[in-house]
Amino acid sequence: VQLQASGGGLAQPGGSLRLSCAASGGTLDFIFIAWFRQAPGKEREGVSCISGSGGSRYYANSVKGRFTISRDNAKNTVYLQMNSLKPEDTAIYYCHVPPAYWGQGTLVTVSS
Predict the structure, then answer these.
(1) In this predicted model, what pLDDT tens digit does every residue of 25-82 receive, in sequence order?
(2) How far is 81 from 2, CA to CA, in rounded Å?
(3) How many Å apart are CA 112 and CA 66, to the nearest integer?
(4) Residue 58 and residue 29: Cα distance in Å, rounded?
(5) What is d(CA 90, CA 107) in angstroms, rounded to the nearest whole number?
(6) Which of 44, 81, 88, 101 could form a disulfide with 97 if both were Cys (CB 3.0 to 4.6 A apart)?
(7) Interatomic CA distance for residues 21 and 4, integer angstroms
(8) Rounded Cα distance, 7 and 70, in Å
(9) Concatenated DSSP letters of 65-90
(10) Would you say 23 and 74 are in contact if contact means Cβ atoms under 8 Å apart?
(11) What are the φ/ψ torsions at residue 65 (nearest 5 degrees)?
(12) Helix H segments across 1-112?
């Protein structure tokens, strides 16, 4: 399966972006999916993940209450809605299907 992340861009502090992770060559139905991010000079960190059914979701403390992960299995896509963005959210965001599938990343820059 190939993962394609999109939706990144430039946002002002307090703004919003919605990231998408679309799969091709396979289905995301009932598959656990995670979003990671890597800021310049920092290690990659987990941001959020969602169970195959969508019934269980996890958020890192740094994004809890601001980000929402969701999935649309009919569209073979997982989303990350990011609200109240902060400059420290600036990073390349990757979607990941364990153990080995990674999207190419989409850059999010939060700056005034």
Answers:
(1) 877 777 899 999 999 999 999 999 999 888 899 999 999 999 999 999 888 899 999 9
(2) 21
(3) 19
(4) 18
(5) 8
(6) 101
(7) 5
(8) 15
(9) TTEEEEEEGGGTEEEEEE-S--GGG-
(10) no
(11) 90, -10
(12) none
